[in-house]
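Step 1: inspect the first sequence and its tokens.
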Amino acid sequence: MQVMIRCKVKPDEVARNLELLETVYEELESVQPDGLRYATFQLEDKVTFVAFVEMEDGPGVLRPLEAFQRYRATLDERCDEPSVMTMLHEVGSYRFH
């Protein structure tokens, strides 16, 4: 399963969003869950974030992560627009994996 998640946060929530994402990645490094590839990018406008997630076993791999739960719990409050999740179907890649 591969997904792209896009969210646009309120300008005054950017620092908080970055802090929460930092704790998510710290926990991922600590736990190192199998079957998960996860990357987040901050776009040029500084308020839009795009995450690319590949999960071999589906979204359940993220549920046990406390930092991820804290991030998700307040995401809607931090966003200017609702987050959008898009399923991805790989056509091809070069050195992406």
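Step 2: inspect the second sequence and its tokens, then contrast the two.
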Amino acid sequence: MQALVIAAHGSHLNAESSTPTFDHADTIRRSGAFDEVRESFWKEEPHFREALRTLESDEVYLVPLFVSEGYFTEQVIPREFRLDEWDVDQWDSDGTGATHTTLTATDTDQTVHYCGPVGTHDAMSDVIVQRAESVTGDPEVGEGFGLAVVGHGTERNENSAKAIEYHADNIRERGRFDEVKALYMDEDPEVDDVTDFFESDDVVVVPLFIADGYHTQEDIPEDMGLTDDYRTGWETPAEVDGHRIWYSGAVGTEPLLADVVLERAADAGADVRDAIERIREETGGERVTADD
């Protein structure tokens, strides 16, 4: 038997934080790709430490529902899942290149294929583009539009910015949007000044966050000038400094993200290609490359 475990952060303060994780797990469960599918969290139940013990499967694909490589993917998850053989060098990554490594969970003796985070997989670029389609209601959105990919940014984890730049570069190479920029909350260039960085009249803003919360629903809308008070909401699109801003909210709420989870497992050897095709068809996703 084979199982999939999705490892996410969760929150004691925001009840909606775990919603995307459960939604994507349900989508994958319906696809029949694995004998068992489990959600697990750092700040909610079921907790990381208990997840493997709830499974009958002796082979597990462990996929972090995180944006970037860093503290959680390199220290917390391996420790809490008791992957004692883990060494970050096994990913052979420069900050965005983690794929997978195969380890043994010491207390359950299960084989665990530990995958890189969803946020740095190439397929996440497709999710960002589909998020732009969803918020504009236009499956052909691109010409005449700018696209801002927004991340947290932090001096504590340089890989946080690398993930944002990686996808901005990927999407820019496709030539679909007139302009593509990487912006940040806590680094320059800052999302507060989004209209300073675009000539396009229409700009789609997609935050590379897994779930909607304080940053995506309060900070970013107010910082961009969409609203003076997030509690009163904002229009979509909203007029800001002569531009129309189409704000999408967290990319992780896009249904196509379930595909990225499966792509991670497939890269680690899981036979899930049929399920990937079904999920892409179900969610309207299309695999795109720069050459397309």
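Step 3: confirm your contrast with the notes below.
The mean pLDDT is 93. Strands lie at 2-8, 36-41, 59-64, 100-104, 111-115, 145-151, 179-184, 202-207, 238-240, 243-247.
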